[in-house]
Structures are given as C-alpha cells and as structure tokens.
C-alpha cells in the first residue's frame, strides 16, 4: 500500500537524514567494502552494510568475472584487517567443483592456506546425496545463508559480503513453478531482487548481485557504438534498477567488435583491444557528486591476466579525442 509520508520530507528532516547517514558511515567504516577496481577507490565510495549493488552486462560480457574479482578484493581487504568474517558466494552456474579447482590453483594445492581462505560457496557440491538436491530458489538461498551464519561454525559468523550470480538464473519459488508467462517471470525477478535487497539488512553486510541485461534488444546504450547498458536495459523487471542502492553496467568491447577496430564516437577515439572493458556508474544512493565524484561516469578498464580489473587515468585519457578529463 502506498505511503505518501515516506515520500514527503520537510527541509529539516532531509538534513537530519543526511547527518544520520554520515554518522552511520563513520560508525561502520570498518565494515565497508572497497570498490573492486584498483585506481577507482578514490572516485567510487565503499559499499556499506545493508546496501545492495547490481552489476549488469549483456550475456557473456563479464558479470561473473566482476563478481569473482570483487569477491577476491573483499577477501583480501578483510584478511588485511584481521577481521573474523566470511564471504558468501552463491552461484547457479559456477559449480563448487570449479571453485575448488580454482582455489587449489590459487593456493598451489596447499590445504593449510585454503583453511584460512574464509569463503563459503553455496551451490551443488561434490558428493551431494540425491535426496539433498533441491532447487536453489531464493527461499532456500536465504535458509542456507542463515545456516552458514548461525550453525556452520562454532559461533555466529558475520558475513563480509554476499555475492550472487545471477538474478535471472534463480529457479522460481515453489508457488511459481508452473507460472510461465512473461509477466509472471517479471514478478519472480522483482521478488528475488527485493529479497536480495533485504538480505543486505538481515545479514548486515554488502550484497553484490549480477544481472543480465538486454535480453531482447538494447534499449538505451551509452551511445550508438559503445553498447554499455543504460537504465532502460534493466527493464526486464523495473525493480532490478529501482531497488538496489547502486547499479553498475559494463561492456566488453571485443564482444561487439573485432580486435583492432577503430571506434570514433562523441569524445571517444580508440582501437578495440583484448580485455578492454567499459564500466558505467549508473547510480549510487546516499551520495552527492561531492561525496562520490565517480557517479554517472564511464571508465575504461583493462582486464588483467589474473582476472582483476585495472583503471589508469593516463590510459583513460589516451582513449579520448579531446584529452581533457
């Protein structure tokens, strides 16, 4: 039911809420998750507990890679802090077998180091009994997260962050299993987005979720040649854009053009290179241009061989026709 009081703030109430938010950030700075891209932490503010972010790309253009890079950056940050917390990585595509193989490679097969690697993987796993295999719909995801926090360890374990890959692959909850129309699917995606948003408050940690954009056609890209998804490209269910505190979109240039192709549009002039990825910061709630200078800007990133993302101002300027930043 619509509550008009929620939308009406007197001037003094707006100021009070602004000050309350700044106090919240000060009190919880130690729990904030830094942005995952080296070189952008000064432009894009850290994400605080109870906040949800969406990362959207077209199919196969890097949303899962971003989640993994963000997870690794968070894990490294928590390790440096010496804070007791685990990251929860939920995937409907990357099985735990693949995750285990990546861990062994990363740690060169040394089990003792993996024991210090505080990540919980939620998904189907090695040796799972047939009777235990069930759809990992959102209700079951929440139950599993609750188990991990309250029962899997000797004492209650806080989450440093929850990473979810990805919204559209979530099986429907039981009461929607037989619903197949587009409108019913949109309702399911909307519900799942709301519940992911609530997870950030329930488990008092940042939540990062991936979403696939442009399932049918690109509605409002950044420009005619650089097909970075815009706000309207999250409209499979409007809640995917409206509800999260933050929304980022990305575009892998080589997914559209051959390597070496010259792109000239607006103030951009560059050749397509392997690993060239553009990030558009569409939305960050609770911040003004003064507190988050990177809002609504596009940044060219380079995907490194280890799966990390790098931003360099000099490289950014080299891709512009007019070199002014």
| Helical percentage | 25-40%
Distance between the termini: 46 Å
Instruction: Give the strand tally.
Output: 11
| Share of β-strand residues | 15-25%
Within CATH, the superfamily of one domain carries the name: P-loop containing nucleotide triphosphate hydrolases
Please provide the ordered H/E string of secondary-structure elements.
Answer: HEHEHHEHEHEHEEEEEEH
Characterize the biggest β-sheet.
Answer: 9 strands, mixed
Using the 3D structure, state the CATH architecture of one domain. Answer: 3-Layer(aba) Sandwich
Structural class by SSE content: alpha/beta
The whole-number mean of residue pLDDT values reads: 85
| Global geometry | globular
Going across the biggest sheet, name each strand in turn: 3-2-4-5-1-6-9-10-11
Parts with pLDDT < 50 across at least 5 consecutive residues: none
CATH class term of one domain? Alpha Beta
The radius of gyration computed from the alpha-carbon positions, rounded to a whole number of angstroms, is 20 Å
Quote the CATH topology of one domain. Rossmann fold
Task: Please tally the helical runs, counting DSSP H or I stretches of 4 or more residues.
Answer: 8
């Amino acid at each position: 039911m619509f509550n008009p009081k929620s939308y009406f703030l007197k001037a003094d109430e707006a100021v009070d809420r602004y000050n309350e938010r700044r106090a919240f950030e000060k009190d919880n700075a130690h729990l904030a998750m830094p942005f995952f891209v080296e070189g952008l932490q000064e432009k894009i503010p850290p994400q605080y507990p109870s906040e949800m972010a969406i990362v959207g790309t077209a199919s196969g253009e890097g949303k899962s890679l971003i989640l993994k890079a963000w997870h690794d950056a968070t894990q490294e940050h928590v390790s440096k802090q010496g804070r007791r917390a685990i990251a929860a990585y939920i995937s409907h595509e990357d099985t735990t077998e693949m995750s285990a193989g990546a861990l062994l490679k990363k740690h060169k097969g040394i089990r003792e180091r993996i024991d210090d690697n505080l990540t919980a993987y939620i998904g189907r796993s090695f040796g799972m009994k047939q009777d235990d295999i069930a759809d990992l719909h959102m209700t079951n995801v929440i139950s599993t997260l609750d188990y991990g926090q309250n029962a899997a360890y000797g004492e209650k374990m806080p989450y440093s962050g929850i990473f979810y890959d990805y919204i559209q692959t979530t099986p429907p909850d039981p009461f929607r299993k037989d619903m197949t129309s587009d409108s019913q699917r949109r309702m399911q995606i909307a519900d799942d987005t709301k519940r992911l948003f609530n997870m950030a408050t329930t488990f008092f940690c940042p939540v990062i979720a991936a979403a696939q954009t442009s399932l049918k056609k690109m509605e409002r890209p950044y420009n005619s040649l650089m097909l970075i998804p815009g706000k309207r490209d999250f409209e499979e269910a409007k809640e995917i854009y409206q509800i999260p505190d933050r929304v980022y979109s990305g575009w892998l240039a080589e997914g559209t053009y051959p390597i070496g192709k010259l792109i000239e549009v607006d103030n951009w002039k560059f050749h397509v290179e392997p690993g060239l990825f553009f990030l558009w910061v569409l939305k960050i709630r609770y911040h003004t241009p003064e507190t988050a200078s990177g809002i609504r800007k596009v940044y060219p990133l380079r995907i490194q061989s280890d799966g990390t993302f790098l931003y360099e101002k000099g490289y950014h300027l080299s891709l512009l026709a007019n070199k002014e930043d």
